[in-house]
Amino acid sequence: MEPHQLELLAPARDADIGIEAVNHGADAVYIGGPSFGARAAASNDIADIARLAAHAHRFNARVFATLNTILRDDELEPARRQIHQLYEAGVDALIIQDMGLLELDLPPIQLHASTQTDIRTPDKARFLQDVGLSQIVLARELDLKQIAAIRAATRSETTLEFFVHGALCVAYSGQCYLSHAHTGRSANRGDCSQACRLPYQVADLEGRIIAHDKHVLSMKDNNQSANLEALIDAGIRSFKIEGRYKDMGYVKNITAHYRTLLDQIIERRPEFAWASPGRTTFSFTPDPHQNFNREFTDYFVGGRRADIGAFDTPKNPGLPIGHVGKVGDTWIELVTDLPGTVLNNGDGLCYYTLQKELTGLAINRAEQAGEHIWRVFPKDSMAGFKDLRAGTALNRNRDMNWIRMLDKASSRRRIDVWVRFEETAAGFSLTLTDEEGYTATVNAAHAREPARDAVQAAASLREHLGKLGATSFAARHIALEWHQPWFVPASFINALRRDTVAALEAVRAAGYVRPSRAQPVDPPAIYPDDTLSYLANVYNHKAHDFYARHGVKVIAAAYESHEETGEVSLMITRHCVRYSLSLCPKQAKGVPGVQGTVRAAPLTLTHGSERLTLRFDCKACEMHVVGKAKPAVAKNSAPLTFYRTRT
Prior knowledge:
six-stranded antiparallel β-sheet; alpha/beta; 4 domains; TIM Barrel; eight-stranded parallel beta barrel; Thrombin, subunit H
C-alpha cells in the first residue's frame, strides 16, 4: 500500500519568496497571479510565476495560483485568458472561489476549492469534490470531529487542506461583508479593509458599557504546531501556512518550523511520506515567536475556548525581554530577564500602558551597562512614552540579529543521488540515480593510466565525484566500478560530473507530470440546498448557470451587487463576544445565582459613527454581526439581479 503523502503548502508574496519557500522545505507554494486574487496587493506577473514554477519543479514541488475572488460578468473572459497564461507558465493548480469559472473553457489545470467557498459540512465538501475540485481548503473553525466527518464523506483521492499557521479571519471565510458595507472594499474581491481589527465599544440593549475600546473581533494568530498529528489522523493531508502579504523572513522561518515538525512525524510513522523529494537543512533554529504575531491560539481544533481573541491590541506584542530599571531624559535602563541577552541598534521594544495600550519603542542606540543591564536610547523623544517608568515590563518585537540572519542564505535542500563511476572501452562513464528513480548516464572518452597510489586515487575520485554542493543533489553513495584504480584528472572528473548533473536535471524536467484535473461526476451532482441567498456570493451569470445546472431553484445575487438594501448579517462567525466576555447562557448553566439571569440578548458595537448589532444563534453557537451598507456604498453601482422582481 502506498504511503499517504503529507504536503506542506507555503505562501509567496512574490516569486523570490516562493523560491525560498521551496528551498526551506515547502512541497507546494501558492501565489497570486496578475489579478483576481484574494490578496489584491500581492499580484505577480506571468514571467515571475514561470520562474517560480521552473524552480519548484526541480524538486517536484508544485505551484498553485490563487484566482479566488468573485468575478463580474465582464471579468470572466480576462480571467479565462489569465488562467490559460498561468497554465502555459507551468502552474500546477488553480485555487478558486467563483463557480462561474467551471462554466468556462479552461485548460486541463487542476482546480482547488478556496477557503472562501466556506467548507464546513460533509455535504458541501462532497459536492465540491463531485463537480471536479481535487483539493478543498476546509474552514478554519472546524474541530477534529468535523474534519474527520468530512474525510469520511469524501473520496480518498480528494485532498483535504487546512490552515495551520498565520492570521485568522474572525468570520467564516467568504461570509464577511463588513468591509464592503462600510468602505466599498470587498473581502470577496481581495480588498478587505480589516474592520475586524478596529477597537469597538460593546454595550447591551440598555446602553450599559460591557467593554470599552476593545478589539473584540480581532483574533490571535493561528498555530497548530501541537496538533499536526491529530490533524493528520483526522484526515488532513495538506498543511497550509497563511501569509501572502508576509515578508521573506516570515516565510523562511515558518516553513522551516513546520517542515521540521512534519519530518519528525514522517520519520516516526512509515505510513506517511514526503510529498516532494529532497531533504532540507537549516542554518538557524526555527522559532514562530520571532515573527509578527498577535500571540497564538489553536482556535477551535480542540473545541471552543475563551482565550482566542487579541482584544487588547491587533499589533505584535513580542517576547518578554526584561523590565525598566531607570528612566533618564534621553534613555531608559533595561534589566534583561536572561543572561546573554543582546540588544541591537534597530531593535523594537514595546510595553503596555496603564490603559493596556501597546506602545512601541524603536532603539536608536543600545549600550551594555553591566551584567543584565542595557542603556537604550530611543529614536523618539522620551516625552512621548506614556506610563514608562521603573518596573514596566518590556517585550522585544523586532530582533535585528534574527532579521539579519534570515536575510542571508539559510537553508540547503538536496535530493539524494546514488553515484556510479565505471570504466568503459573508450574511457569512463558516470551514472546518477536519484531517490525518485530518475537516472542519467554520460560516457566520456579518456585514456586509462594506472594510478601510482591506488588508495589515494580512489579517495581523490570519490572526493571530486561528491562535489555536488552547488546543485540540487547530495551524494548518498558512491560506487567505483573498475578492475583496477586508474589515474583520472580532476578536470576530467569535474566536467563529467557537471555534464551528468545537467543530464539528470533534464531527465527530471522531462519526467515532471503536472497533477491531473478531476472530472465531475455524471449526472451532475445536486447542490445540498435548492435556495441560495446573498451568502453564496454569486456575482455573475455563469455562476448562476452553474448552480441552476446543479439543481438550485432560487439564486440571489452576491452582497456586492447591492441587491440587499436593508440590514443583513455582514459577518457570520463562530467566535462569540458573549462567550469571550463570560456572558454566555451556556456558561451560566448550573451556576447557582447566575443560571437563568444571563440571556443571549443582542449587543451593540460602536466605532466612531459605525454602529453594528451582534445577534447570537445559540443553537448553532454562532454570532452574526448585523448592519447595512452605507448610502454612498449602496449607490456606487447598479444592483445585479437574476430576476425581474424579488419575491
